Amino acid sequence: MAPPLPTFNIEIPSHDGQRFGAYLAKSSTKNAPVLIVIQEIFGVNAGMRTMCDAWAQQGYHAICPDLFWRQKPGIDITDKSEAEWQQAFELFNGFDVELGMKDLISTVAVARSLPGANRKVGSIGFCLGGKLAFLMATRSDADCNISYYGVGLMELLGELPAIKHPLLLHFAENDKFTDADSLQTIQTACVKNPLIEQHLYKGTQHAFARVDGGTRDDAAAELANERSAGFLKKCLG
User: Fold this and answer.
1) pTM over 0.85, yes/no
2) Pairing with 170, which of 73, 163, 179, 228 sits 20 to 30 Å away (CA)?
């Protein structure tokens, strides 16, 4: 039996002189754009790596950086057991968003100079990563960003005027981490920015697009992913 593919196959220099791991799936396309795939609360797990591989097949170099490395590098868990959920929430609660954003901005810098890439960079994030993708739109120079059911967006609405590049938002109608009133407030605020495209998926729950997730909705995930593919093609060419 062949040995398992290592989770991390590149290293990224951090802003504070350290290095952290990332999973890179390279496209065979010449001068391909780079897509930064931002993890959920389960680390750079099989689902995230599968997404990277799928985006590489569509013509993007896909990088998923380890954003929990400052707590514990190499987290690779699932949503299949109570113990894993407990560990995931402990990591989430201990996560420093400001440092995480600096690590993502460091990842953008690496992506801009990646051999075989064309210097165009986008991001796509899920759950915690969805929040960070929103912040990538407000705080980074990424060319476009996609957020799937980002958590905690209500507290970030004051940053909307800082968005200078296209942002795509996917929302679950029945998201247990975003109540209906908050969801309405977020969507209403985002309508005011012409750079933001948003979609609400009726009857779906949080993590409806998670690979092999317990609340996955195949039809909604397929539609959202088709919209994301069209958005990236338009923005990154």
Assistant:
1) yes
2) 73
